[in-house]
Design a protein that fits this description.
Blueprint (H helix, E strand, L loop, with lengths): L1 H28 L3 H4 L25 H11 L7 H14 L5 H8 L6 H13 L3 H11 L14 H12 L3 H10 L3 H14 L6 H17 L1
Helix pairs in contact: 1-4, 1-6, 3-6, 4-6, 5-6, 5-7, 6-8, 7-8, 8-10, 9-10
Length: about 220
Amino acid sequence: MKKLQAVVIVGLLIAVGTAWRNLHEIETNSPLAHATNSTSSPAAVSASQSVRPVAVKPAENFAAQVQEEAAAMSQLNDHPEEVQKRLKELADKMQESDVPSLQQNALNPNLNGDQRFLSVYILGESTLAKAQESLEAIATAPIPETHEGRLTTQEEIIRGQAVESIRQAETLKRVLARSDNTFINDRAQRNLLYLEGKASSPEQQDQAALTQLLKKNSR
C-alpha cells in the first residue's frame, strides 16, 4: 500500500509537469505568446523512462533545497518511495519562517512550473498551521489575466493544488465563499465532501471519472 501511495504521489508530480508542458505549448502557438508569456515550462517526464532519482546535494538553506528538488523533478520516475521520503523529510524540516518564501514561489508566474508546484506540495505535506494558512492564501489569491481561450490556466492549476492540500472543512468553506472560479470551486467542493466523509478523495474521484471516460470512448 505504501508503495502504491508513493507511485501515486510521484505520478502526480509527473502529471502536473506534463500539464505545465501542454499549457506552454498552447501559449507558444498563440499569436499573443511572444508578447505576453512569462512563465517558463518545465521538462516533463515520459512515462516510459526508467531513470534513477537524482541524488540532490545538500543545500545551504531550505529555499535552496526546494529549488534543487524542483530542478531534479524532471528525472524522477523509477524510485517513487525514495522521492516521497525525501520530499516528506523536506516538509518536516520546514520552519514557520520558510512558509512565506514558498507562498511567494507558488504565486510567482515568472518561476518555472516545477518549482511552483513543489512549493505548494511541500506546504501541503507540512504539519505547520502556518502552512495551512498559506495554502488558503494561495487558493484565494487573485488570478491574473491570461490569454483568451484557455480552458484551465497555470494559475488555476496552482490554486487547485493548494485547495486539495487544505485539511480543514471550514477553510474550504471560506475558499468557496470567496472564489468565483469554476475550476477552483470544483476542487474545493470535491475536497470538502471528502473531508466531511461524503465522498472519496479528490484523486480517487478524478480516477473514477477518467475510468468512465475511457470506457465511454472505447465503445
